[in-house]
Amino acid sequence: MKTWMTIIAVFFSQCVWANQLTIADTNNTKYVISDSQLLDMPQTSITTTLPWLEEEATFQGVTLQTLFKQSKLALPPSLTFVALNNYQVVIPRSDIETYSPIIAILKDGEPMSIRNKGPFWIIFPIATKPELNITDYHSKMIWQLKRIQM
């Protein structure tokens, strides 16, 4: 019985962890934000095609500017984004301010599972900004996002 309780606890702790995003500042102070907190922030939708999808999709989430404003954090010159598999990408503030990428929480109105590139995915507006449809910006659209390092 004790073994089963441990297995269940580990399973549910992974589910809870998967729906949290951590922001770490330059002093390594951590701010943990849940998917429900992100959904409570002002939302932006981006409808676009992506190289990894067979058809157009609508992504809903919060812009990085909104996230930092709501969290009372200053947007630094660049941010490092880290995925569940520890893939990392740096996005400069200039790209954030110019293109307003979102941290997508929903795809076509549904939460994204880890299997489907969730729970959080950085999305740039490729459909309205075709100049972003290049490898450099494709690499910045990190999925399975778990951490933002300032």
Automatic annotation (TrEMBL):
It comes from the Bacteria. Residues 1-18 form the signal peptide. The keyword Signal applies. The keyword Signal applies. InterPro entries: OxRdtase_Mopterin-bd_sf (IPR036374). Keywords: Signal. This is Oxidoreductase. It comes from Vibrio qingdaonensis. The lineage of its organism: Bacteria, Pseudomonadati, Pseudomonadota, Gammaproteobacteria, Vibrionales.
